[in-house]
Amino acid sequence: MAIKRYIANKDTTITNAYKPGMLLRATGSNMGLADSMEIFSIYGQQSAISSELSRGLIQFQDNEIQTDRTAGDIPASGSVNFYLRLFNAKHPFTLPKSYTLGVHPVNASWEEGHGVDVDGYTHLTYDTEGASWLRRQASTSWTDIGGDYDHNRELFDTFDTGEEDLEIDITEWVEEWLTGSIANNGLLLKLSGSQEAAYTGSADGLQIINTTGSVTNYYTKKFFSRGTEFWFKRPVIEARWDSTVLDDRGNFYSSHSAAPASYNDNTIYMYNYFGNSLVNIPDIGTGAIYVRLYVAEENGASLTTMVTGGYVSTGIYSATLALAATASQVYDRWFNSAETVCYHTGTIDIKFAKPSNANPDRSYITNITNLKPNYHAHETARFRVYTRKKDWNPTLYKKARNNVSRNLVEVGYYRLKRVIDDCTVVAYGTGSTAHTKLSYDTSGSYFDFDMKMLEPGYMYEVDFVYDINGRNEQQPERFKFRVKE
Fold first, then answer.
1. Cβ-count burial of 292 within 10 angstroms (0-12 exposed, 13-18 middle, 19+ buried)?
2. pLDDT at position 144, please?
3. What is the three-class DSSP state of 187?
4. Is 26 helix (H, G, I), strand (E, B) or coil?
5. Residues 6 or more apart from 308 whose CB is under 8 A from it?
6. Is the peptide bond before 220 cis (omega within 30 degrees of 0)?
7. What pLDDT, on a 0 to 100 scale, did the predictor assign at position 354?
8. Which string of b and e fits 55-77 if b means at least 16 CB within 10 Å?
9. What are the Cα distances from residue 427, in Å, to 157, 359, 370, 423, 458?
């Protein structure tokens, strides 16, 4: 599993826009329970130089992320990226185009509040509860009108049509929340300084002086808030990382002089299970482990020099090596640095490849061999993916055999959709984080998925793309299942 989502625990919109009638501003209005957040900038609507702005506030509970890290459910700092994701809320009004939204850390705590009116701004925060343009909570003002935020730290996302979702890598800030180097007071979302409305008049305590601002209007961008009825449109921090296990034990090739070094390298894994749990080897912990290959399981000649392996995750170690083999089977033995203790001896079946003038057929048949019709919302499921070449013609025997031929796809990715509306729940993670890349071991390809990310009561489907000759090719098969409470 290489993706987890954390839902916002509070959000709201704050604004100094004029109320209907254009006489009073909504600087005391709260929209903490509205189903959307609004970002806009309006210049010169009430007077020749008036400015009206709307900004969003959003916060996530970093203790949930810390709990998952402590439990080993997400990797340590440096091995995971955190993305702020907000989802466009369609509306029938004017939509800004060609603009930039910036996100800043908030410097002070604030209240969400209970207001819902984003049209007439009738729900006030004064003497009740919630953040507004002037106050961060009912009885406490912001130091700066429009929210106290770090002006020196800003991350951007750009929008062309205005209908796009927002996605910003906020890894650095999340890691700072987790270490306590900055307080987690949430994030403020606003148009870039040059696109918020210009205001060059005298300070009035309501408008932000912005001498380099815009006289072009940017209104109105809406994002779904955490109160939306749409499960997959709620604001999230999405953790992504590459958790793939690429275990070549069942796909180990002998070296060939016509193949580049990367083709000759094989990575093998050792899994230290005791009972039903993976545990670290006490003498090794997270340190180095050492491997040799032998011609015999015991007392045979060594085929390789000592290879240094390393720690992958709890109870899992790996090593990468090459071998010009003549035998069809060899044995891997895992040692401490002094070779005085052998922790494990495994078996490796060797495959032999040679150059060919023919371009091989790379069409595949795919199946999820352990697919269940239903999954519970609180389980993490492992999906086993079987692949074979499309033109496979097996030799038939009178006696059936247990082993079915398979052809391992070394680079493949999964995608997950909701069937009823074709909503993409998890897109193909083919980028640098590779968060939907398939793992493989001696039993074939697989991936793990946390069902807590899915709304119960619906049917979902999984499909795949495979990297074939450097190009991602969509596979035709679809595999469906339902999630229940």
1. buried
2. 97
3. strand
4. coil
5. 288, 289, 290, 319
6. yes
7. 80
8. bbbbbbbbeebeeebeeeebeee
9. 19, 31, 22, 10, 18
Q: Is 225 helix (H, G, I), strand (E, B) or coil?
A: coil
Burial of 5 per CB tally in 10 Å (0-12, 13-18, 19+): middle
Question: What is the predicted pLDDT for the residue at 300?
Answer: 80
Bin 109: left if φ > 0, else alpha if -120 < ψ < 50, else beta. beta
Q: Which residue's structure tokens are 């062309």?
A: 160
- Tokens representing 454? 């899915």
Q: Which residues pair with 302 in a beta bridge?
A: 294
Any idea what DSSP says for residue 19? P
Pair of tokens at residue 430: 């083919």
Q: Are 114 and 123 in contact (CB under 8 A)?
A: yes
Domains of the chain: residue spans and CATH: 3-240 (no CATH), 248-351 (2.60.40), 364-484 (2.60.40.1930)
- Model's pTM, two decimal places? 0.91
C-alpha–C-alpha distance, residues 261 and 354, integer Å:
14
Helices 171-179 + 62-70 axis angle, to 10? 80
Give, for 66, the enclosing helix (H) or strand (E): helix 62-70
The pLDDT of residue 458: 98
Query: Which 8-state DSSP code applies to residue 214?
Result: B
Structure tokens at 126: 């004064």
Q: pLDDT means per 10 residues in the chain (485 residues)?
A: 93 97 95 97 95 98 96 93 98 95 98 95 88 94 98 97 97 98 98 96 95 96 97 98 94 91 92 91 96 89 93 94 93 95 95 76 89 97 93 56 68 97 95 92 94 97 93 95 96
Q: Quote the tokens at residue 380.
A: 């993490």
Tokens, residue 443:
């039993």
